Amino acid sequence: MRSLYIDGAWRDSASSEALDVVNPATEQVIDTVPAGAAEDVDAAVAAAAAALPAWSALTPGQRVTHLAKALELFNARIDDIAAELTRDMGAPAVFARKVQAGLPALMFQTYIDLVEESGERYFGGERVGNSLIVREPVGVVGAITPWNYPLHQIVLKVVPALLAGNTVVLKPSEVAPLSAYALTEVFHEAGLPAGVFNLVSGTGPVVGEAIAAHPRVDMVSFTGSTRAGTRVSQVAAETVKKVALELGGKSPNVILPDADLVKAVKRGVADVMRNTGQSCNALTRMLVHRDSYEEAVALAAESAAKYAPGDPADEATRMGPLVSADQLERVRSYLALGVEEGARLVTGGPEPVRGRPDGYYVNPTVFADVSNDMRVAQEEIFGPVLVLIPYDTEEEAVAIANDTVYGLNAAVWSGDPERGLAVARRLRAGQVEVNGGALNPRAPFGGYKRSGNGREWGAHGLEEFCEVKAVQL
């Protein structure tokens, strides 16, 4: 069994219980990690608190030096880390290299670049009238991360938190924890000072709640389900600590009548099938003008059929398994529900995937004739499931798009970029793509409404881990 990483050393957990790590493509146990206890969190927080004064006293440039060494080691073993992610959570090999491991490397470098470019000014303060406005570290940060992009979400929290001068206690998802261990090994080898970074594996109800409730944890950054995020907020409220939440989504993809329909539908389907649909920002509701609706349905079915589930270790595989047996059961239940609600099953469905007797595989699925009040249109399924909803006017499309408790992501397609931008401005979401606008690692990412609060990525993500102080002169 693996160990915990506390105060710069690997150590046994106070708990004797273990958690199996299962390869979702084979259903075989490939590792075990400790089911940590509250006592382990106490030890990790004590180590982080003890390390905080010296770490926060370093200059931004000195902290960059530490993290740059870690990134160099990370990049040297990125192929091995990608292979671990394929085994750990079922990401297809190509996707694991380019996204599951490649995107964290990009974000790691982006944060280093930001601090190198403007760290002294950013943390040194700015004059506003007779005041000096300075940004200081929050303190001890508890990071609780999910299984769908396990390494990416860790980097988005741990790297900016450390660069801002905080110390960290990380609880990775117990479903896919192995990349967290790989990053911890990198930090250890890079010589990060003892206590600056700590890892406690375990479950949410035990380790996660202990972190959120701990009186010496100054901030909790959580990514996961809205239900779990609500619980983190409730527990953290007892000590009035800062809480940042990146939660669920049911994102709309508005295809206007003047859009390139073929391109919009193809790109929209690809977005939903990415990571086997296990993306909080997936564009799972496709809104199409009624005049083009049936053509869009046919195009979506054709595109979805190209994502045949396969062995994630195979370089040709575009879509791997879901991450766990629980997730498979959840997604299949929604596929059955869609039919019960009266949606038209265009392709896919809840039946077992042909030729895949082992592994947590599910069929890529497209539903048509969906109304926005159906549960499959309102609830986050977290699987490769697309619903198509018709509309008659632009006003109706905007109303349908905004008729959700979520507000994480959205998209607009139009032949007129200005019209696309105008509609994008009306959508209640933290991020909106217009005509497939490219990913920007320096742009903020986060949600409105029940998709959470706070922002990750770029300077906004760095500032999330800072307190702001006004010094009157």
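The record above closes out task 2.4. Task 2.5 opens with a second protein, given below.
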Amino acid sequence: MILAWGNVARMVKYVASANYGLMALCKLVGTWYHGKTLRTLMTSVVTDWMTSKNDRERNTMLNIARHGRILSFGCYVCTVCTISFYLSFNLRKFYRNMHQSQRTLVYGSAYPYNIHRSPNYEITYFTQLSGGIYTALINSTVDSFVSILLLHICAQLINLRTALNDLIDKLAEGFISSSRFKKGLAAITIRHEHLIRNAKTVDDCYTVVLFIHMFAATFQLCFVSFQVFTIISNHLDVPPAKVGFLSFYVIMVLTHLYIYCYSAERLLTESTSMAYGVYKSKWYDILSKDAKNLMFIVYRSTIPLRLTAGKFGVFSLAMFGT
């Protein structure tokens, strides 16, 4: 930026490429740093799939997992399309620069060696090209991973709500005793606390990373918009590959943001639905001393589980719309 000072177009180009790399680096470091905690969460996910008690629970988990797979697939489709245009544009540029004395790189900057001489130019060019591809894949992988973790917790909350309703209905219809109801309710409460801890663990692991993601993504959209505006206003002759790259790039950034907002919105909804699940059950047909015990879960469910960006912003569909 300092070397390009005064040339706004070049400054924006350099910052945009570094900005997207910063997003990927933070996600990679954050995932590595919290690796032990995340492995524990993954073990919990595997255990849930192996110990699902009936077809209804498993079907619920499969249904939510399909939503996660669709989100991940959409995320990767946008990424692959962006990478395809990125490769087409830069390989064309490489072929054009091969026999010229002054050569341009994928990401222009100052280097402590002569970049115009072979094989320095070729090595630097393809290292930068690989770095750009790797950056896009890191962002897609981590975003899909966090989304799937949140959606799995949502599936477990739905199963827990169903189990609680069944327990209340059995007591109301006289199929189980009050003491057995209390034991079942205690197990559900412990499970509820376990899911709450899991959701908070995901938030604690990624809240700082997601704050940087939101900050960087906002600037990234501004940078790309500026580049498009410059192309249109100056009537520049731009290759179709670059136009395709910029278009899919914007879609990709918005898709990454959407999968966080969708998963977080689903988590918020399912966590508060525990209270509504109790309300819709036959609590009015059981003894008051048993009904009062349900208030612990009701009160706890009034505090929604959230995915936050640095404890400042809460991910939701409303946030995405804004």
